[in-house]
Amino acid sequence: MRLLPPLQILTPTPWGWKHCEQLSTSGLYMAGMSFSCAAASSPVHSVKGKACRWRRHISACHLTANSHPFKSLHGYFASPSSLQDHQVHSEADYSAGKIEELKKRVGFTLRTDIHSTRSMVLVDTIQRLGISHQFEDELELILDRNPSAAQGDEDDLFSTALRFRLLRQRGYNVDTDVFHKFMDRKGHFKESLSKDLAGLLSLHEASYLGVRDEEVLSQAMGFSEEHLRRSMLNLHPVRASEVNLALECPRQRRMVRSEARSYIGKYAQESGRISDVLQLATLDFKLVQSQLRIEIAVLRSWWKELGLAEKLSFARDRPLECFLWTVGLFPEPRFSQCRIEIAKTIAILLVIDDVYDIHGSLDELILFTDAVRRSWRVEAMEDLPEYMKICYMALYNTTNEIGYRVLKEHGRCIIPELRKTWVDLCEGFLVEARWFSGGVVPEMEEYVGNGVSTAGTYMAFVHAFYLIGSGVNKQSSDVVNSCPKLFTSAGRILRLWDDLGTAKVEQERGDVASSIDCYMKEGDGASEAEARLHVRSLIHSSWLDLNGEALAATSLPRSTVDAALNLARAAQAMYQHGDDDRLPSVDQHIHSLLIEPIPQDNHISEEARVGRTSEFTVHE
Predict the structure, then answer these.
(1) Is residue 17 a part of any domain in this protein?
(2) What range defines the domain where residue 429 resides?
Protein backbone atom coordinates (compact mmCIF):
# COMPACT_ATOMS: atom_id res chain seq x y z
CA MET A 1 0.00 0.00 0.00
CA ARG A 2 1.50 3.33 -1.07
CA LEU A 3 1.35 5.96 1.65
CA LEU A 4 1.58 9.69 1.20
CA PRO A 5 4.05 11.54 3.46
CA PRO A 6 2.72 12.49 6.90
CA LEU A 7 0.83 15.77 6.72
CA GLN A 8 1.00 18.49 9.35
CA ILE A 9 -2.43 19.91 10.11
CA LEU A 10 -2.79 23.26 11.84
CA THR A 11 -5.19 22.81 14.73
CA PRO A 12 -6.38 25.16 17.46
CA THR A 13 -5.31 24.53 21.05
CA PRO A 14 -6.01 26.45 24.25
CA TRP A 15 -2.78 28.34 23.51
CA GLY A 16 -3.47 29.14 19.89
CA TRP A 17 -2.61 27.32 16.67
CA LYS A 18 0.11 24.74 16.35
CA HIS A 19 1.15 21.83 14.15
CA CYS A 20 -0.18 19.19 16.48
CA GLU A 21 -1.99 16.64 14.33
CA GLN A 22 -0.45 14.41 11.70
CA LEU A 23 -2.45 12.81 8.96
CA SER A 24 -1.27 10.19 6.60
CA THR A 25 -3.51 8.99 3.87
CA SER A 26 -3.33 5.97 1.68
CA GLY A 27 -3.83 7.16 -1.83
CA LEU A 28 -6.17 4.30 -2.62
CA TYR A 29 -8.30 3.48 0.40
CA MET A 30 -9.72 0.52 -1.47
CA ALA A 31 -6.43 -1.26 -0.91
CA GLY A 32 -6.08 -0.34 2.78
CA MET A 33 -6.98 -2.00 6.05
CA SER A 34 -10.44 -1.59 7.53
CA PHE A 35 -12.53 -2.95 10.37
CA SER A 36 -15.61 -5.10 10.28
CA CYS A 37 -17.72 -5.88 13.35
CA ALA A 38 -17.64 -9.53 12.37
CA ALA A 39 -13.90 -9.70 12.86
CA ALA A 40 -11.18 -7.66 14.48
CA SER A 41 -9.72 -6.78 11.12
CA SER A 42 -10.21 -7.77 7.54
CA PRO A 43 -8.64 -6.69 4.27
CA VAL A 44 -10.44 -4.15 2.19
CA HIS A 45 -10.86 -5.56 -1.26
CA SER A 46 -10.19 -3.72 -4.48
CA VAL A 47 -11.84 -4.06 -7.83
CA LYS A 48 -10.21 -3.07 -11.08
CA GLY A 49 -12.93 -2.40 -13.59
CA LYS A 50 -12.56 -1.98 -17.32
CA ALA A 51 -12.66 1.53 -18.65
CA CYS A 52 -16.22 2.60 -19.32
CA ARG A 53 -17.41 4.47 -22.40
CA TRP A 54 -20.84 5.50 -21.26
CA ARG A 55 -21.94 8.90 -22.44
CA ARG A 56 -21.46 11.82 -20.06
CA HIS A 57 -24.62 13.53 -18.92
CA ILE A 58 -25.02 17.09 -17.77
CA SER A 59 -26.43 16.76 -14.28
CA ALA A 60 -27.65 18.85 -11.43
CA CYS A 61 -27.29 16.98 -8.18
CA HIS A 62 -29.06 16.51 -4.89
CA LEU A 63 -26.09 17.75 -2.92
CA THR A 64 -24.34 20.22 -5.19
CA ALA A 65 -24.90 22.64 -8.03
CA ASN A 66 -23.20 22.78 -11.39
CA SER A 67 -19.69 24.19 -11.37
CA HIS A 68 -16.25 23.62 -12.80
CA PRO A 69 -14.79 20.16 -12.24
CA PHE A 70 -12.52 19.83 -9.25
CA LYS A 71 -9.46 19.17 -11.34
CA SER A 72 -9.72 22.59 -13.00
CA LEU A 73 -8.94 24.23 -9.67
CA HIS A 74 -6.24 21.85 -8.44
CA GLY A 75 -3.52 24.38 -9.11
CA TYR A 76 -4.81 26.53 -6.28
CA PHE A 77 -4.14 23.78 -3.76
CA ALA A 78 -0.63 22.56 -3.11
CA SER A 79 0.14 18.88 -2.75
CA PRO A 80 0.36 17.63 0.84
CA SER A 81 4.13 17.25 0.79
CA SER A 82 4.75 20.78 -0.48
CA LEU A 83 2.70 22.22 2.35
CA GLN A 84 5.41 21.29 4.83
CA ASP A 85 7.61 24.03 3.50
CA HIS A 86 9.46 25.92 6.23
CA GLN A 87 8.11 29.27 5.09
CA VAL A 88 4.52 28.10 5.54
CA HIS A 89 5.29 26.89 9.05
CA SER A 90 7.11 30.09 9.98
CA GLU A 91 4.22 32.24 8.79
CA ALA A 92 1.74 30.08 10.68
CA ASP A 93 3.84 30.30 13.84
CA TYR A 94 3.92 34.09 13.57
CA SER A 95 0.14 34.24 13.03
CA ALA A 96 -0.47 31.91 15.97
CA GLY A 97 1.61 34.11 18.26
CA LYS A 98 -0.14 37.27 17.11
CA ILE A 99 -3.54 35.63 17.49
CA GLU A 100 -2.75 34.67 21.07
CA GLU A 101 -1.73 38.23 21.85
CA LEU A 102 -4.93 39.64 20.32
CA LYS A 103 -7.06 37.02 22.08
CA LYS A 104 -5.83 38.15 25.47
CA ARG A 105 -6.69 41.78 24.78
CA VAL A 106 -10.12 41.08 23.30
CA GLY A 107 -10.88 38.54 26.02
CA PHE A 108 -10.11 41.13 28.68
CA THR A 109 -12.55 43.53 27.03
CA LEU A 110 -15.23 40.82 26.98
CA ARG A 111 -14.82 40.03 30.67
CA THR A 112 -14.76 43.66 31.79
CA ASP A 113 -18.52 44.21 31.87
CA ILE A 114 -20.39 41.01 31.08
CA HIS A 115 -23.86 42.41 31.85
CA SER A 116 -23.86 45.40 29.51
CA THR A 117 -25.29 45.80 26.03
CA ARG A 118 -21.80 46.75 24.90
CA SER A 119 -20.63 43.26 25.88
CA MET A 120 -23.54 41.67 24.02
CA VAL A 121 -22.74 43.70 20.90
CA LEU A 122 -19.14 42.49 21.07
CA VAL A 123 -20.28 38.86 21.47
CA ASP A 124 -22.51 39.28 18.42
CA THR A 125 -19.65 40.82 16.44
CA ILE A 126 -17.27 38.01 17.41
CA GLN A 127 -19.78 35.38 16.32
CA ARG A 128 -20.48 37.16 13.05
CA LEU A 129 -16.75 37.43 12.29
CA GLY A 130 -16.36 33.67 12.74
CA ILE A 131 -13.99 33.82 15.72
CA SER A 132 -16.25 32.62 18.54
CA HIS A 133 -14.18 29.42 18.71
CA GLN A 134 -11.39 31.59 20.12
CA PHE A 135 -13.54 32.73 23.08
CA GLU A 136 -15.41 29.69 24.37
CA ASP A 137 -14.58 30.50 28.02
CA GLU A 138 -15.76 34.08 27.69
CA LEU A 139 -18.99 33.07 25.93
CA GLU A 140 -19.64 30.55 28.67
CA LEU A 141 -19.13 33.26 31.27
CA ILE A 142 -21.46 35.70 29.55
CA LEU A 143 -24.18 33.43 28.14
CA ASP A 144 -24.05 30.03 29.84
CA ARG A 145 -23.21 30.31 33.52
CA ASN A 146 -26.15 32.56 34.32
CA PRO A 147 -28.39 33.22 31.32
CA SER A 148 -30.70 35.47 33.32
CA ALA A 149 -27.74 37.71 34.16
CA ALA A 150 -27.24 38.30 30.46
CA GLN A 151 -30.47 40.32 30.45
CA GLY A 152 -28.53 43.36 31.62
CA ASP A 153 -30.00 46.67 32.70
CA GLU A 154 -30.93 48.22 29.34
CA ASP A 155 -34.52 47.66 28.29
CA ASP A 156 -34.66 49.33 24.87
CA LEU A 157 -35.79 47.36 21.83
CA PHE A 158 -32.31 46.94 20.38
CA SER A 159 -30.81 45.49 23.58
CA THR A 160 -33.78 43.27 24.41
CA ALA A 161 -33.94 41.76 20.93
CA LEU A 162 -30.18 41.27 20.78
CA ARG A 163 -30.06 39.44 24.12
CA PHE A 164 -33.05 37.33 23.10
CA ARG A 165 -31.40 36.29 19.84
CA LEU A 166 -28.00 35.51 21.34
CA LEU A 167 -29.50 33.34 24.07
CA ARG A 168 -31.78 31.45 21.68
CA GLN A 169 -28.85 30.87 19.35
CA ARG A 170 -27.06 29.39 22.34
CA GLY A 171 -29.94 26.98 22.97
CA TYR A 172 -31.86 28.78 25.74
CA ASN A 173 -35.61 28.87 25.26
CA VAL A 174 -36.07 32.50 26.29
CA ASP A 175 -39.74 33.45 26.65
CA THR A 176 -41.20 35.97 24.19
CA ASP A 177 -42.76 37.80 27.13
CA VAL A 178 -39.66 40.03 27.07
CA PHE A 179 -41.23 41.84 24.10
CA HIS A 180 -44.58 42.60 25.76
CA LYS A 181 -43.33 45.96 27.03
CA PHE A 182 -43.04 47.10 23.40
CA MET A 183 -46.68 46.23 22.61
CA ASP A 184 -49.87 48.20 23.14
CA ARG A 185 -53.02 47.07 24.90
CA LYS A 186 -54.31 45.46 21.72
CA GLY A 187 -51.26 43.23 21.54
CA HIS A 188 -49.60 45.05 18.62
CA PHE A 189 -46.13 46.53 18.49
CA LYS A 190 -46.20 50.27 19.20
CA GLU A 191 -46.03 52.46 16.11
CA SER A 192 -43.54 54.73 17.86
CA LEU A 193 -40.95 51.96 17.41
CA SER A 194 -40.99 52.59 13.66
CA LYS A 195 -38.48 55.41 14.17
CA ASP A 196 -35.98 53.18 16.01
CA LEU A 197 -34.12 51.79 13.02
CA ALA A 198 -31.47 49.92 15.00
CA GLY A 199 -34.17 48.45 17.24
CA LEU A 200 -36.26 47.36 14.24
CA LEU A 201 -33.30 45.62 12.64
CA SER A 202 -32.47 43.85 15.91
CA LEU A 203 -36.11 42.81 16.32
CA HIS A 204 -36.23 41.53 12.76
CA GLU A 205 -33.16 39.33 13.27
CA ALA A 206 -34.56 38.01 16.57
CA SER A 207 -37.90 37.11 14.96
CA TYR A 208 -36.20 34.47 12.81
CA LEU A 209 -35.37 32.47 15.94
CA GLY A 210 -39.09 31.80 16.37
CA VAL A 211 -40.81 28.43 16.60
CA ARG A 212 -44.35 27.34 15.76
CA ASP A 213 -47.22 29.11 17.53
CA GLU A 214 -45.12 32.04 18.76
CA GLU A 215 -47.50 34.82 17.76
CA VAL A 216 -45.33 37.56 19.25
CA LEU A 217 -42.38 36.72 17.01
CA SER A 218 -44.64 36.27 14.00
CA GLN A 219 -45.95 39.80 14.59
CA ALA A 220 -42.42 41.04 15.16
CA MET A 221 -41.36 39.71 11.78
CA GLY A 222 -44.19 41.39 9.91
CA PHE A 223 -43.95 44.67 11.84
CA SER A 224 -40.19 45.02 11.48
CA GLU A 225 -40.18 44.05 7.80
CA GLU A 226 -42.86 46.59 6.94
CA HIS A 227 -41.10 49.50 8.59
CA LEU A 228 -37.59 48.50 7.50
CA ARG A 229 -38.70 48.44 3.87
CA ARG A 230 -40.20 51.89 4.25
CA SER A 231 -37.05 53.24 5.86
CA MET A 232 -34.77 52.12 3.01
CA LEU A 233 -35.88 55.05 0.85
CA ASN A 234 -34.24 57.50 3.28
CA LEU A 235 -31.10 55.56 4.17
CA HIS A 236 -27.54 56.01 2.98
CA PRO A 237 -26.87 53.40 0.25
CA VAL A 238 -24.48 51.45 2.48
CA ARG A 239 -27.07 51.17 5.25
CA ALA A 240 -29.87 50.49 2.81
CA SER A 241 -27.84 47.57 1.46
CA GLU A 242 -27.38 46.20 4.97
CA VAL A 243 -31.10 46.42 5.72
CA ASN A 244 -31.94 44.80 2.39
CA LEU A 245 -29.60 41.89 3.17
CA ALA A 246 -31.31 41.37 6.53
CA LEU A 247 -34.69 41.31 4.81
CA GLU A 248 -33.60 38.93 2.05
CA CYS A 249 -31.48 36.61 4.19
CA PRO A 250 -31.54 37.14 7.98
CA ARG A 251 -28.54 36.19 10.10
CA GLN A 252 -30.09 32.92 11.33
CA ARG A 253 -30.08 31.61 7.76
CA ARG A 254 -26.60 32.61 6.58
CA MET A 255 -23.74 30.18 6.06
CA VAL A 256 -21.25 30.79 8.86
CA ARG A 257 -17.95 31.03 6.94
CA SER A 258 -19.50 33.06 4.10
CA GLU A 259 -20.90 35.51 6.62
CA ALA A 260 -17.49 35.77 8.30
CA ARG A 261 -15.74 36.52 5.01
CA SER A 262 -18.33 39.13 4.06
CA TYR A 263 -18.54 40.81 7.44
CA ILE A 264 -14.79 41.23 7.92
CA GLY A 265 -14.80 43.73 5.06
CA LYS A 266 -17.93 45.47 6.34
CA TYR A 267 -16.65 45.63 9.92
CA ALA A 268 -13.50 47.34 8.67
CA GLN A 269 -15.73 50.21 7.53
CA GLU A 270 -17.57 50.58 10.84
CA SER A 271 -16.64 53.74 12.73
CA GLY A 272 -17.06 51.90 16.04
CA ARG A 273 -14.92 48.94 15.08
CA ILE A 274 -12.34 47.57 17.54
CA SER A 275 -8.97 47.30 15.84
CA ASP A 276 -7.88 44.21 17.80
CA VAL A 277 -11.08 42.38 16.90
CA LEU A 278 -10.71 43.21 13.20
CA GLN A 279 -7.06 42.16 13.13
CA LEU A 280 -7.85 38.91 14.98
CA ALA A 281 -10.68 38.08 12.59
CA THR A 282 -8.47 38.72 9.56
CA LEU A 283 -5.60 36.57 10.86
CA ASP A 284 -7.94 33.81 11.96
CA PHE A 285 -9.70 33.69 8.59
CA LYS A 286 -6.37 33.50 6.82
CA LEU A 287 -5.14 30.67 9.04
CA VAL A 288 -8.39 28.71 8.79
CA GLN A 289 -8.34 29.16 5.01
CA SER A 290 -4.82 27.67 4.97
CA GLN A 291 -6.05 24.72 7.00
CA LEU A 292 -8.97 24.17 4.61
CA ARG A 293 -6.55 24.12 1.68
CA ILE A 294 -4.54 21.40 3.39
CA GLU A 295 -7.72 19.38 3.91
CA ILE A 296 -8.58 19.82 0.24
CA ALA A 297 -5.15 18.49 -0.71
CA VAL A 298 -5.84 15.36 1.35
CA LEU A 299 -9.27 14.96 -0.24
CA ARG A 300 -7.92 15.52 -3.74
CA SER A 301 -5.28 12.84 -3.29
CA TRP A 302 -7.87 10.36 -2.01
CA TRP A 303 -10.31 11.11 -4.83
CA LYS A 304 -7.66 10.81 -7.51
CA GLU A 305 -6.44 7.45 -6.25
CA LEU A 306 -9.97 6.14 -5.74
CA GLY A 307 -10.44 6.57 -9.47
CA LEU A 308 -14.24 6.62 -9.65
CA ALA A 309 -14.30 9.64 -11.96
CA GLU A 310 -11.96 7.93 -14.42
CA LYS A 311 -13.71 4.55 -14.32
CA LEU A 312 -17.27 5.88 -14.45
CA SER A 313 -17.39 8.54 -17.12
CA PHE A 314 -21.06 9.34 -16.49
CA ALA A 315 -20.50 10.24 -12.83
CA ARG A 316 -19.95 13.69 -11.38
CA ASP A 317 -16.38 14.65 -10.55
CA ARG A 318 -16.87 17.36 -7.92
CA PRO A 319 -15.24 16.62 -4.58
CA LEU A 320 -14.37 20.28 -4.10
CA GLU A 321 -18.04 21.19 -3.99
CA CYS A 322 -18.61 18.26 -1.64
CA PHE A 323 -15.94 19.73 0.61
CA LEU A 324 -17.64 23.13 0.49
CA TRP A 325 -20.74 21.47 1.95
CA THR A 326 -18.70 20.22 4.89
CA VAL A 327 -17.27 23.70 5.46
CA GLY A 328 -20.88 24.83 5.71
CA LEU A 329 -21.84 22.08 8.15
CA PHE A 330 -18.71 22.14 10.31
CA PRO A 331 -17.12 25.61 10.11
CA GLU A 332 -15.05 25.36 13.30
CA PRO A 333 -11.34 24.56 12.75
CA ARG A 334 -11.39 21.64 15.21
CA PHE A 335 -13.62 19.58 12.90
CA SER A 336 -10.86 19.09 10.33
CA GLN A 337 -10.97 15.29 10.16
CA CYS A 338 -14.76 15.26 10.15
CA ARG A 339 -14.86 17.58 7.13
CA ILE A 340 -12.49 15.35 5.18
CA GLU A 341 -14.37 12.12 5.94
CA ILE A 342 -17.85 13.55 5.33
CA ALA A 343 -16.67 15.07 2.03
CA LYS A 344 -15.62 11.56 0.98
CA THR A 345 -19.07 10.16 1.75
CA ILE A 346 -20.81 12.97 -0.16
CA ALA A 347 -18.55 12.45 -3.20
CA ILE A 348 -19.43 8.74 -3.23
CA LEU A 349 -23.11 9.54 -2.68
CA LEU A 350 -23.13 11.69 -5.82
CA VAL A 351 -21.68 8.87 -7.89
CA ILE A 352 -24.28 6.41 -6.59
CA ASP A 353 -26.97 9.02 -7.20
CA ASP A 354 -25.87 9.23 -10.83
CA VAL A 355 -26.02 5.44 -11.10
CA TYR A 356 -29.66 5.54 -10.02
CA ASP A 357 -30.63 8.70 -11.89
CA ILE A 358 -28.99 8.47 -15.29
CA HIS A 359 -27.24 5.18 -15.93
CA GLY A 360 -28.53 2.03 -14.27
CA SER A 361 -31.49 0.08 -15.58
CA LEU A 362 -34.28 -0.60 -13.10
CA ASP A 363 -33.30 -4.27 -12.85
CA GLU A 364 -29.68 -3.32 -12.14
CA LEU A 365 -30.75 -0.80 -9.51
CA ILE A 366 -32.79 -3.44 -7.74
CA LEU A 367 -29.71 -5.69 -7.67
CA PHE A 368 -27.52 -2.91 -6.25
CA THR A 369 -30.06 -1.96 -3.58
CA ASP A 370 -30.36 -5.59 -2.56
CA ALA A 371 -26.57 -5.97 -2.36
CA VAL A 372 -26.31 -3.01 0.02
CA ARG A 373 -29.35 -4.09 2.03
CA ARG A 374 -28.81 -7.81 2.38
CA SER A 375 -25.26 -7.99 3.67
CA TRP A 376 -22.04 -6.09 4.21
CA ARG A 377 -19.71 -8.52 2.48
CA VAL A 378 -17.73 -8.44 -0.73
CA GLU A 379 -19.58 -11.55 -1.91
CA ALA A 380 -22.77 -9.47 -2.12
CA MET A 381 -21.54 -7.80 -5.31
CA GLU A 382 -20.89 -10.97 -7.32
CA ASP A 383 -24.04 -10.59 -9.42
CA LEU A 384 -23.59 -6.88 -10.07
CA PRO A 385 -22.51 -5.37 -13.40
CA GLU A 386 -18.84 -4.36 -13.50
CA TYR A 387 -19.49 -0.61 -13.04
CA MET A 388 -21.67 -1.30 -10.01
CA LYS A 389 -18.95 -3.44 -8.44
CA ILE A 390 -16.68 -0.40 -8.51
CA CYS A 391 -19.34 1.72 -6.80
CA TYR A 392 -20.05 -0.96 -4.24
CA MET A 393 -16.38 -1.40 -3.36
CA ALA A 394 -15.80 2.34 -3.04
CA LEU A 395 -18.77 2.55 -0.68
CA TYR A 396 -17.78 -0.59 1.23
CA ASN A 397 -14.17 0.37 1.76
CA THR A 398 -14.74 4.02 2.60
CA THR A 399 -17.43 3.13 5.14
CA ASN A 400 -15.19 0.53 6.75
CA GLU A 401 -12.33 3.03 6.87
CA ILE A 402 -14.53 5.51 8.72
CA GLY A 403 -15.75 2.76 11.02
CA TYR A 404 -12.17 1.78 11.79
CA ARG A 405 -11.24 5.39 12.54
CA VAL A 406 -14.14 5.73 14.99
CA LEU A 407 -13.21 2.42 16.66
CA LYS A 408 -9.58 3.46 16.98
CA GLU A 409 -10.26 6.97 18.27
CA HIS A 410 -13.45 6.53 20.29
CA GLY A 411 -13.65 2.78 20.98
CA ARG A 412 -17.03 2.25 19.30
CA CYS A 413 -17.96 -0.21 16.58
CA ILE A 414 -20.47 1.67 14.46
CA ILE A 415 -20.35 -0.15 11.10
CA PRO A 416 -23.99 -1.33 11.44
CA GLU A 417 -25.18 2.24 12.09
CA LEU A 418 -23.23 3.62 9.12
CA ARG A 419 -24.41 0.84 6.84
CA LYS A 420 -28.05 1.46 7.79
CA THR A 421 -27.82 5.04 6.52
CA TRP A 422 -26.65 3.79 3.13
CA VAL A 423 -29.41 1.16 3.02
CA ASP A 424 -32.01 3.88 3.66
CA LEU A 425 -30.44 6.12 1.04
CA CYS A 426 -30.29 3.43 -1.67
CA GLU A 427 -33.85 2.35 -0.94
CA GLY A 428 -34.91 5.98 -1.35
CA PHE A 429 -33.05 6.22 -4.65
CA LEU A 430 -34.85 3.08 -5.82
CA VAL A 431 -38.23 4.60 -4.94
CA GLU A 432 -37.39 7.61 -7.11
CA ALA A 433 -36.21 5.33 -9.93
CA ARG A 434 -39.53 3.48 -9.84
CA TRP A 435 -41.42 6.80 -9.95
CA PHE A 436 -39.45 7.89 -12.98
CA SER A 437 -39.77 4.52 -14.72
CA GLY A 438 -43.53 4.55 -14.23
CA GLY A 439 -44.00 8.23 -15.07
CA VAL A 440 -45.36 8.89 -11.59
CA VAL A 441 -45.58 12.35 -10.04
CA PRO A 442 -45.91 11.57 -6.32
CA GLU A 443 -47.84 13.49 -3.69
CA MET A 444 -45.88 16.42 -2.26
CA GLU A 445 -45.41 14.98 1.25
CA GLU A 446 -44.45 11.57 -0.09
CA TYR A 447 -41.87 13.16 -2.37
CA VAL A 448 -40.36 15.43 0.28
CA GLY A 449 -40.29 12.68 2.90
CA ASN A 450 -38.37 10.38 0.59
CA GLY A 451 -36.17 13.27 -0.55
CA VAL A 452 -34.92 13.93 2.97
CA SER A 453 -33.16 10.57 2.84
CA THR A 454 -31.96 10.72 -0.77
CA ALA A 455 -30.45 14.16 -0.16
CA GLY A 456 -28.00 12.43 2.19
CA THR A 457 -29.27 14.10 5.35
CA TYR A 458 -29.29 11.12 7.72
CA MET A 459 -26.13 9.68 6.21
CA ALA A 460 -24.10 12.84 6.82
CA PHE A 461 -25.43 13.49 10.33
CA VAL A 462 -24.93 9.94 11.59
CA HIS A 463 -21.40 9.69 10.21
CA ALA A 464 -20.48 13.08 11.68
CA PHE A 465 -22.02 12.30 15.07
CA TYR A 466 -19.74 9.30 15.54
CA LEU A 467 -16.69 10.88 13.90
CA ILE A 468 -16.76 13.86 16.25
CA GLY A 469 -17.37 11.54 19.18
CA SER A 470 -18.23 14.11 21.85
CA GLY A 471 -21.47 13.58 23.75
CA VAL A 472 -21.94 10.08 22.35
CA ASN A 473 -23.74 7.81 24.81
CA LYS A 474 -26.63 5.36 24.68
CA GLN A 475 -29.28 8.06 24.98
CA SER A 476 -27.84 10.34 22.31
CA SER A 477 -27.03 7.37 20.03
CA ASP A 478 -30.62 6.14 20.25
CA VAL A 479 -31.88 9.60 19.30
CA VAL A 480 -29.48 9.96 16.36
CA ASN A 481 -30.16 6.46 15.02
CA SER A 482 -33.92 7.06 15.12
CA CYS A 483 -33.74 9.86 12.51
CA PRO A 484 -35.05 12.61 14.83
CA LYS A 485 -37.21 15.48 13.69
CA LEU A 486 -34.17 17.75 14.08
CA PHE A 487 -32.60 15.92 11.12
CA THR A 488 -35.85 15.68 9.19
CA SER A 489 -36.54 19.41 9.45
CA ALA A 490 -33.04 20.28 8.20
CA GLY A 491 -33.38 17.68 5.46
CA ARG A 492 -36.68 19.11 4.26
CA ILE A 493 -35.07 22.53 3.89
CA LEU A 494 -32.21 20.93 1.93
CA ARG A 495 -34.61 19.00 -0.31
CA LEU A 496 -36.78 22.05 -1.03
CA TRP A 497 -33.87 24.42 -1.69
CA ASP A 498 -32.38 21.76 -3.97
CA ASP A 499 -35.58 21.79 -6.00
CA LEU A 500 -35.68 25.59 -6.21
CA GLY A 501 -32.08 25.66 -7.40
CA THR A 502 -31.89 22.67 -9.73
CA ALA A 503 -35.40 21.74 -10.88
CA LYS A 504 -35.00 23.24 -14.36
CA VAL A 505 -31.72 21.45 -15.09
CA GLU A 506 -32.94 18.17 -13.63
CA GLN A 507 -36.06 18.29 -15.80
CA GLU A 508 -33.89 18.81 -18.86
CA ARG A 509 -31.93 15.65 -18.08
CA GLY A 510 -35.11 13.68 -17.40
CA ASP A 511 -34.91 13.42 -13.63
CA VAL A 512 -37.77 12.56 -11.27
CA ALA A 513 -40.42 15.23 -10.66
CA SER A 514 -39.52 17.92 -8.11
CA SER A 515 -41.58 19.46 -5.32
CA ILE A 516 -42.44 22.22 -7.79
CA ASP A 517 -43.99 19.67 -10.16
CA CYS A 518 -45.78 17.97 -7.26
CA TYR A 519 -47.42 21.21 -6.19
CA MET A 520 -48.36 22.18 -9.74
CA LYS A 521 -50.08 18.81 -10.02
CA GLU A 522 -51.89 19.17 -6.67
CA GLY A 523 -52.56 22.90 -6.98
CA ASP A 524 -55.26 22.72 -9.68
CA GLY A 525 -53.29 24.37 -12.43
CA ALA A 526 -50.91 26.40 -10.28
CA SER A 527 -48.17 28.12 -12.25
CA GLU A 528 -44.47 27.48 -11.70
CA ALA A 529 -44.12 30.90 -10.07
CA GLU A 530 -46.93 30.05 -7.64
CA ALA A 531 -45.36 26.67 -6.95
CA ARG A 532 -42.01 28.31 -6.15
CA LEU A 533 -43.68 30.70 -3.71
CA HIS A 534 -45.35 27.72 -2.05
CA VAL A 535 -42.04 25.89 -1.75
CA ARG A 536 -40.50 28.96 -0.12
CA SER A 537 -43.36 29.02 2.38
CA LEU A 538 -42.65 25.36 3.16
CA ILE A 539 -38.99 26.24 3.76
CA HIS A 540 -40.01 28.95 6.22
CA SER A 541 -42.36 26.55 7.97
CA SER A 542 -39.59 23.94 8.21
CA TRP A 543 -37.31 26.56 9.75
CA LEU A 544 -39.87 27.06 12.54
CA ASP A 545 -39.73 23.32 13.18
CA LEU A 546 -35.94 23.29 13.02
CA ASN A 547 -35.66 26.17 15.49
CA GLY A 548 -37.99 24.37 17.86
CA GLU A 549 -36.14 21.08 17.60
CA ALA A 550 -32.80 22.82 18.15
CA LEU A 551 -34.11 24.26 21.42
CA ALA A 552 -35.60 20.92 22.51
CA ALA A 553 -32.64 18.67 21.59
CA THR A 554 -31.10 18.68 25.07
CA SER A 555 -29.93 15.06 24.82
CA LEU A 556 -27.78 15.72 21.74
CA PRO A 557 -24.31 17.30 21.69
CA ARG A 558 -24.23 20.91 20.57
CA SER A 559 -22.08 19.96 17.55
CA THR A 560 -24.94 17.83 16.21
CA VAL A 561 -27.55 20.53 16.75
CA ASP A 562 -25.33 23.12 15.09
CA ALA A 563 -24.72 20.79 12.14
CA ALA A 564 -28.47 20.52 11.54
CA LEU A 565 -28.86 24.31 11.57
CA ASN A 566 -25.79 24.70 9.39
CA LEU A 567 -27.09 22.22 6.81
CA ALA A 568 -30.19 24.37 6.33
CA ARG A 569 -27.99 27.46 6.01
CA ALA A 570 -25.63 25.80 3.56
CA ALA A 571 -28.54 24.59 1.43
CA GLN A 572 -29.70 28.15 0.87
CA ALA A 573 -26.18 29.37 0.08
CA MET A 574 -25.51 26.52 -2.36
CA TYR A 575 -28.82 26.54 -4.24
CA GLN A 576 -30.13 30.12 -4.12
CA HIS A 577 -28.26 31.13 -7.29
CA GLY A 578 -30.30 28.60 -9.27
CA ASP A 579 -33.47 30.29 -8.05
CA ASP A 580 -32.16 33.87 -8.36
CA ASP A 581 -29.06 34.46 -10.46
CA ARG A 582 -28.39 37.80 -8.72
CA LEU A 583 -27.16 35.84 -5.70
CA PRO A 584 -23.70 34.24 -5.26
CA SER A 585 -23.05 30.98 -7.09
CA VAL A 586 -21.22 27.90 -5.84
CA ASP A 587 -18.13 29.01 -7.78
CA GLN A 588 -18.18 32.35 -6.03
CA HIS A 589 -18.44 30.70 -2.61
CA ILE A 590 -15.53 28.39 -3.47
CA HIS A 591 -13.32 31.28 -4.55
CA SER A 592 -14.15 33.56 -1.62
CA LEU A 593 -13.81 30.89 1.08
CA LEU A 594 -11.06 28.63 -0.27
CA ILE A 595 -9.05 30.48 -2.90
CA GLU A 596 -9.04 34.27 -2.67
CA PRO A 597 -6.78 35.60 0.12
CA ILE A 598 -8.39 38.03 2.49
CA PRO A 599 -6.91 41.56 2.34
CA GLN A 600 -4.52 42.35 5.16
CA ASP A 601 -5.17 46.08 5.04
CA ASN A 602 -8.72 47.39 5.05
CA HIS A 603 -8.95 50.90 3.62
CA ILE A 604 -12.02 52.84 4.59
CA SER A 605 -13.50 55.25 2.10
CA GLU A 606 -15.04 58.45 3.37
CA GLU A 607 -18.35 57.47 1.79
CA ALA A 608 -18.39 54.18 3.67
CA ARG A 609 -17.37 55.90 6.89
CA VAL A 610 -20.22 58.41 6.57
CA GLY A 611 -22.65 55.64 5.73
CA ARG A 612 -21.74 53.72 8.86
CA THR A 613 -21.98 56.46 11.44
CA SER A 614 -25.74 56.85 11.36
CA GLU A 615 -28.54 55.44 13.50
CA PHE A 616 -26.82 52.07 13.92
CA THR A 617 -24.01 53.42 16.10
CA VAL A 618 -26.12 54.64 19.00
CA HIS A 619 -25.90 51.31 20.81
CA GLU A 620 -22.17 50.72 20.35
Answers:
(1) no
(2) 307-593
